[in-house]
Amino acid sequence: MKNIKLGLLKCLLLALIPLGSVVADDSRSVETFSATAPAQLQTRQSSKLNSVVTQAYQSHVWFHSVDIYLSGDINSNGYYHRLEVEFDADTSVPYQQVFAEFTLLPTYGAERLYYTSSVFELFRESSDDWLAVDTVLDQHFAADDYLLTIRLFDAQTGYLLAEISGFDDSSLDYIPLEDYGRDSYHEDSSSVEVSAGSTGILALLALCLLQCRRFAKRSSKAE
Predict the structure, then answer these.
(1) Is-contact 146 140, C-beta < 8 A?
(2) Residue 12 pLDDT more than 80?
(3) pLDDT tens digit string along 40-50?
(4) How far apart are CA 97 and CA 123, in angstroms?
(5) How far is the C-alpha of 121 from the C-alpha of 131, rounded, in Å?
């Protein structure tokens, strides 16, 4: 009964949030995926390397590999405003329609959903059914080391099929990110220049001598 309620809730959320669109206006994403027709697919299991072993959850769908790429560090502080995630998922059934959700978790704070993909297809263990999402973080992402989580859902029922995160794979954790607004900001530094040349020293000595003479005159008059 609980699973049925969760499925209905997920379907309702899918109806309210269009697939392939960013949930908030704090990032911009572009997705790329294989559009190879099933009849043209060639299963190339031998060419698949770097398989993912540990995953938070998997059913008849699982992640085979996940790669991330960072770029865009305008202020050279070691934090990037552009994140590209590419993964290849497999399934034990001949054909499975899914969609993916991508979230980022800061060191302190709540997990944030930053992108929901379009529906795409998985064909057993083919290497031609990958998905890549290139995201530019525009705002509301403070400079921090983020943990990435990717979840795959059944496109028809909304049920969770597979999940992987930085808790499972260290390459998905401690990702140095910040938004473009912070990355493009350069703090202006101000300084006051004080001259200590010979002219400044002579002027100071002259002022001290003048003060001494005034003090001597006042002393003589007092006597």
Answers:
(1) no
(2) no
(3) 434 334 356 66
(4) 9
(5) 10
